[in-house]
Specification:
By secondary structure, the protein is an alpha/beta fold. The protein contains 9 helices and 19 strands. The chain binds S-adenosylmethionine.
């Protein structure tokens, strides 16, 4: 089976997340092709986490993986591939629209589709034959990828049916992330800390990069008001959160209680993570203090001070915790803009001072065009 994953703004990080997720789930896969923010994945057993829908498309019934991935916007399933003749012959045998109303809007996302126009003609005819009032919509609006490339914004809720062409493949989108739901959840919780907290999206990515499994325990030694903890608990991962600030721990507790997570699944501790003794955990995912808030672009000297201070802090914390961490340690590190350049930590120094290896492909930068202090996403392993 082949699947299309349409990724969010940080394509490199989103791909790393998908790889970690599939490896953790022991799903064999191969990335066959990449076009802009779309990757085509071939896999034999993704159905285990994403039930197949090749002959009967039941989008609503999927208890899919999209909610677990922070960097993926949509997942589509390839229904057929090849020349227009082969595609139309095969599509004739497949239900394309299973809705009840005889009126629908649809869109065809185009990732260098070889036979895009042929597919548009096929769909028009097909829906006419099925006596459906079908209107093809065009995507308006773009999102800007971290690389600067503009790509169509595919998250519109207004469109009913979403199909795609990717090179010579044709398929149907079977899951799309519900950003509104995630945002609503985040706005409604009792305590928010806009400047200091990471987004639920990035928290999910880091949890997946850590490869922690359902039922295992994740540690966040800089838990703040608990965004990483909340996202892990939502995936049935147990958590331990530590913060040196009493107020932060109190607020994390209020937030986790508001979610009504089972109390036995989390533990919150007000202590210094460079001194605390922790029980065995499977992984760490955390955003430490990235230095004081910068209102203007700092000098080179100031930027170096920020990253040096961070290195000292993270080395001390990791060396205190590492013997009780079985798997990966995932953290964010400051990526500080000075003039045209960005200054980052000396990751080889962090690696040699902790005796841990930097996982292949990391660190990966994560920043916004206008941010002064962005992030490097780092994964360490034994
Ligand atoms: C960037 S914030 C973490 C944000 C967090 N992800 C959230 O959702 O709120 C860093 C946190 O680390 C805590 N901190 C700093 N030094 C610490 C230490 N040595 N031990 C434990 N916590 C520490 C700070 O109090 C702060 O709440």
């Amino acid at each position: 089976m082949k699947y299309l994953f349409i990724l969010g703004r940080n394509v490199e990080l989103s791909i790393a997340e998908i790889k970690s997720f599939l490896e953790r789930e022991k799903i064999n896969f191969k990335i066959i092709s990449k076009i802009s923010n779309g990757i085509l994945i071939e896999t034999e057993n993704l159905q285990r986490v994403l039930p197949s829908s090749s002959n009967q498309i039941k989008e609503k019934n999927l208890k899919g993986i999209i909610e677990k991935l922070g960097g993926t916007i949509s997942i589509g399933e390839v229904l057929t591939e090849g020349t227009p003749e082969k595609v139309s012959k095969e599509l004739d045998k497949i239900t394309l629209y299973s809705g009840k109303e005889n009126k629908l809007n649809y869109v065809v996302f185009n990732f260098h589709g070889k036979y895009y126009i042929d597919i548009l003609i096929y769909l028009k005819q097909r829906f006419r034959e099925e006596k459906l009032k079908a209107t093809e919509k065009k995507i308006t609006g773009n999102i800007k990828l971290q690389s600067g490339e503009l790509v169509p914004n595919l998250t519109s809720k207004l469109i009913g049916e979403k199909y795609f062409v990717f090179e010579d493949c044709f398929g149907k989108i079977i899951e799309t992330v519900d950003y509104e739901k995630i945002e609503k959840r985040d706005m409604e919780k009792p305590v928010r800390r806009e400047e200091l907290s990471i987004s639920p999206r990035l928290a999910k990515i880091m949890i997946n990069l850590s490869k922690v499994k359902e039922g295992e325990t994740l540690l966040d030694p800089f838990c703040g008001i608990g965004v990483v903890l909340q996202e892990a608990l939502l995936q049935n991962i147990k958590v331990i959160g530590v913060d040196i600030d009493k107020e932060a721990v109190k607020n994390a507790k209020l937030n986790l209680e508001w979610f009504k997570f089972p109390k036995e699944n989390y533990q919150l501790i007000n202590e210094d993570s460079s001194k605390i003794k922790i029980p065995k955990v499977q992984a760490i995912a955390t955003e430490p203090d990235l230095g004081e808030l910068q209102k203007k672009i700092p000098s080179l000297q100031k930027a170096e001070e920020i990253v040096n201070g961070f290195e000292k802090l993270i080395i001390k914390i990791i060396n205190n915790l590492k013997k009780n961490v079985e798997g990966r340690i995932v953290f964010t590190a400051p990526l500080v803009r000075t003039g045209k350049n960005k200054i980052e930590c000396d990751f080889n120094r962090i690696s040699s001072s902790t005796g841990l290896k930097i996982a292949k492909g990391f660190p990966i930068p994560e920043f916004r065009e206008d941010s002064i202090v962005g992030r490097s996403i780092v994964v360490l392993e034994k």
